[in-house]
Design brief:
The chain is an alpha+beta fold. The chain has seven helices and 15 strands. Helix 1 packs antiparallel against helix 2, helix 2 runs antiparallel to helix 3 and helix 4 packs across helix 7. It is globular. The protein binds 6-O-phosphono-alpha-D-fructofuranose (P6P).
Length: about 325
């Protein structure tokens, strides 16, 4: 029987790959793992403890906020504060970033960007949801509190990114820029155990993920591309939960597409805490992540905390194919 490698053991072991690592990032990743276990417990029993449903508020981008969103957001803040390694947090659930008190005068070097519970509209109908996170090294004086500049960094400056998928099992996927590894929560141990070592995305794939309901709102090149996917007998799989859709496409091969629509002329997904972390993971798996201008998502300047972006990411061949359709069908003057 293969020896079990827990997330904590793996993080400590991988730290040796960074000769100058001083353990702060490792500590931060371990604390994210603990927060994920707490959120997982509540997600799994949400229907029993009256944290289903809406809490009556809306977040800064107008999404109705579910009680579990708020619970997840608060737990992540609590554990990041506890870690002493995180200087501040930008979250989908917070209009502005928050500064965490430095613990025992530790000069926290990192900031966290997070979507605490992505796909939360699925909670009440028992469909999988996820947490998406990214970690930046601060660019301002560590002796001072973090500022907005620490957050408004392009995705190519991320030092770590990951997601937790609360699905048929709970899996934590993360990268620190040297490949991607996945850990499945073993409830009998209460530990995330290595289950997907050196994860890579197939170059090709038979799945495409897009909200077909917006078909008539898509630009010509997108309509022609998804017509091609359909003609190529690929399967349309769309859960309405980005973490679930992207995870399936990483495992099986496929492409996730959230283009601009009339309802969301700049795209719907937020670049800071949804697009960039997922783009880093997909690229580290060997895939591609671009926007509708064919720019690499990770190179797009971030100018506001809740900035939106269209995104197309997944298997390299499928993203390259989308690019060809844009070149072929986009009016030159556009
Ligand atoms: P639509 C969930 O609300 C989310 O932010 C992503 O998880 C998901 O991919 C997308 O929005 C779904 O949006 O417009 O298809 O319902």
């Amino acid at each position: 029987m293969n020896r079990i490698t827990t997330l904590d053991e793996f993080i400590i072991d991988k730290q040796k790959d960074f000769p100058f690592a001083t353990g702060e990032l490792s500590g931060l990743l371990r604390d994210i793992g603990v927060a994920a276990k707490i959120v997982n417990r509540e997600v799994n029993r949400a229907g029993l403890v009256n944290i289903l449903g809406l809490d009556g508020s809306t977040n800064q981008t107008g999404d109705e906020v579910k009680k579990l969103d708020i619970f997840a957001n608060n737990k992540i803040i609590e554990y990041m504060e506890n870690s002493g390694e995180c200087s501040g947090i930008a979250s989908e659930e917070l209009e502005d970033f928050i500064k965490l008190p430095s613990k025992a005068n530790k000069e926290a070097k990192y900031v966290l960007v997070v979507d605490p519970l992505d796909g939360s509209s699925n909670i009440d109908v028992n469909v999988s949801v996820g947490t998406i996170f990214g970690i930046y090294r601060r660019v301002t004086d560590h002796k001072q509190e973090c500022t907005i500049e620490d957050f408004l960094q392009p995705g190519n400056k991320l030092v770590a990114a990951g997601y937790i998928l609360y699905g048929t099992s709970t899996i934590l996927i993360y990268t620190t820029g040297n490949g991607v590894n996945g850990f499945t929560l073993d409830p009998s141990l209460g530990e995330f155990c290595l289950s997907h070592k050196d994860l890579t995305i197939p170059e090709y794939g038979d799945f495409y993920s897009i909200n077909q309901g917006y078909y008539l709102q898509f630009d010509l090149e997108m309509r022609r591309y998804i017509d091609h996917c359909s003609d190529s007998k690929r399967s349309l799989r769309y859960i309405g939960s980005m973490v679930s859709d992207v995870h399936r496409n990483i495992i099986y091969g496929g492409i996730f597409l959230y283009p601009v629509t009339r309802k969301n002329p700049l795209g719907k997904l937020r670049i800071l805490y949804e697009c960039n972390p997922m783009a880093m993971i997909v690229e580290q798996c060997g895939g591609r992540a671009i926007n509708s201008n064919l720019e690499r998502i990770l190179d797009v300047p971030v100018t506001s905390l809740h900035q939106k972006s269209p995104i197309m990411l997944g298997s390299k061949h499928l993203v390259n194919e989308y690019e060809e359709f844009v070149m072929k069908y986009r009016p030159q003057n556009k």
